[in-house]
Amino acid sequence: MSSTTHHNFKVSAADWNKTSSNYAANISKAPMSIPIFHLISLLDTHLPFSSATTILDVGCGPGNGTAAIISTFHDTLPPGSQILSTDFSEGMVDIVARTRRAKLEELSEESKEREIWEKVQPLVMDATDLSPLPDASVSHIIANFVFFMTESPEKALTEALRVLQPQGICACSSWARCQWMELLDLAAQRSFPGFGKPVHEMPVIAPQWTNAEGIATLLDNAGFRDVQTEYVEAPIVAQDPEGFAKFFLGSGNPAVTWITDVLSEEEIREVEKAFEEMIREVCERNEEGGYVLAGTAVLAAGKVLH
Ligand SMILES: C[S@@+](CC[C@H](N)C(=O)[O-])C[C@H]1O[C@@H](n2cnc3c(N)ncnc32)[C@H](O)[C@@H]1O
Q1: 3-176+206-233+296-303 has which CATH code?
Q2: 88 lines ligand 1 (CB under 6 A)
Q3: What pLDDT was estimated at residue 33?
Q4: Which residues have C-beta within 8 Å of that of residue 190, sequence separation ≥ 6?
Q5: Residues 144-154: pLDDT tens digits?
Q6: In the prediction, which pLDDT does 7 show?
Q7: Using alpha carbons only, what angle is made at residue 192 by residues 186 and 194, rounded to the nearest 5 degrees?
Q8: Mean pLDDT for the chain overall
Q9: Ligand 1 atom closest to Cα of 20?
Q10: Nearest atom within ligand 1 for CA of residue 127
Q11: Which residues of the chain have pLDDT under 50?
């Protein structure tokens, strides 16, 4: 079974399988999907989708990148193009396959969108080993919140570079800041001593993946050229901090299992409470009264020139 490292933290395909439905229904909408439209716009600016051959969605999760490309560019994608939606979690790939089947049923036979969905291939594949794909066979790669959490981000970048054709483009993202993780960490620090358990270390993203300069250097070292970066605000707005804390701690997402895997149900309720308190204490509120948990994504795109 392949697994990925969050710095000093393991996230396996099995972990992502467990949370795939919850992720698809909740977390993947916001904040995870906010940077997707920026990523696909970066891709299109560097190499218009009108000249796409094969588009590769790496670590596609429930397929939001794939869906965004189709909904935005179905009229410009050439008839011969295809989309490979790949993830190392079978649970995620199954969700993409179900979405594809649903789209084929709901969209009219003549629609261009349906034509493109027909050519989507959901595939189980590890980002660090794209060996099923030949060299220079892909025009566009989108990797939204994936590379930094693989066992070897360097290998993932080298593989992306290998499969891209000359002038091919790769756009990826990572987190510069996640206030929900900061607050969860504080909630854990508050709660764990009372349980008589040592406070676990929160998984952290390797520093180079948390800022534009770091990611640009990583892409450049891997052999990408014309590297461009940007920051995008991608907050979570919690209308009901109690409900949000309960949902988040119960999500099975690898962002919370470092806490929930080592606690009893009762202890988890206490962390939930502390997390809710932290949100109420620290977060700013928007005009609708929602608590804004700040999130900043860092995006990068790089080209293959050879
Ligand atoms: C934060 S989610 C992002 C999902 C999707 N890109 C989106 O924007 O919603 C990370 C995804 O990367 C996948 N993943 C993590 N490590 C991977 C690896 N080594 N190879 C392929 N997929 C991986 C996980 O299974 C999960 O679906």
Answers
A1: 3.40.50.150
A2: yes
A3: 84
A4: 274, 278
A5: 999 999 999 99
A6: 45
A7: 120
A8: 92
A9: 27
A10: 20
A11: 1-9
Q: How far is the CA of 235 from the centre of ligand 1 (A)?
A: 19
- Can you tell me the distance from the alpha carbon of 212 to that of 175, in angstroms, rounded to the nearest whole number? 10
Q: What is the pLDDT of residue 4?
A: 41
Q: What is the pLDDT of residue 115?
A: 96
Write down the pLDDT at residue 258.
Answer: 87
For ligand 1, atom 12, the nearest C-alpha belongs to 59
C-alpha 176 to ligand 1 mean position (Å): 17
What's the gap in Å between 57 CA and the centre of ligand 1?
Answer: 10
What is the biggest distance separating any 2 CA atoms in the chain, rounded to whole angstroms? Answer: 63
Ligand 1 atom having least distance to the Cα of 128: 19
SS3 letters for the chain? CCEEECCCCEEEHHHHHHHHHHHHHHHCCCCCCHHHHHHHHHHHHHCCHHHCCEEEEECCCCCHHHHHHHHHHCCCCCCCCEEEEEECCHHHHHHHHHHHHHHHHHCCCCCHHHHHHHCEEEEECECCECCCCCCCCEEEEEECCCHHHCCCHHHHHHHHHHHEEEEEEEEEEEEEEEHHHHHHHHHHHHHHHHHCCCCCCCCCCCHHHHCHHHHHHHHHHHCCEEEEEEEEECCEEECCHHHHHHHHHCCCCHHHHHHHCCCCHHHHHHHHHHHHHHHHHHCEECCCCCEEECEEEEEEEEECCC
